[in-house]
Amino acid sequence: MKQQARAVAWNSAAVIAWMRARMAAAGADPAAITDEPVRFMRLPEVRERVGLSTATVYRLVAADKFPKPFAIDGRSCGA
After folding, report:
1. Nearest 10 degrees: Cα torsion 25, 41, 55, 6
2. pLDDT tens digits along 42-62
């Protein structure tokens, strides 16, 4: 029997905080990133928002330099 891959999602507040910290470190205004309601974001949206590849996102997660994803089990929902 084929095993399904485990679905993961990131907390939007954690991703936004990471993006603001990167902007501040680069000398840009972190307030340029607007707040939004806290929700879960799947990998394609995370990649689009932060402009990184899948491999880079997981490399930064492994190095504790990017928020860790949450596992979503069963019939997953990212809302």
Report:
1. 150
2. 999 999 999 999 999 999 999
Strands in 40-41's sheet, in edge-to-edge order, are: 40-41, 7-11, 70-72
Condensed to tens digits (0 to 9), the pLDDT of residues 2-37 reads: 555 678 899 999 999 999 999 999 999 999 999 989
The neighbouring-strand residues paired with 70 are 9
**Residues 39/12, Cβ–Cβ less than 8 Å:** yes
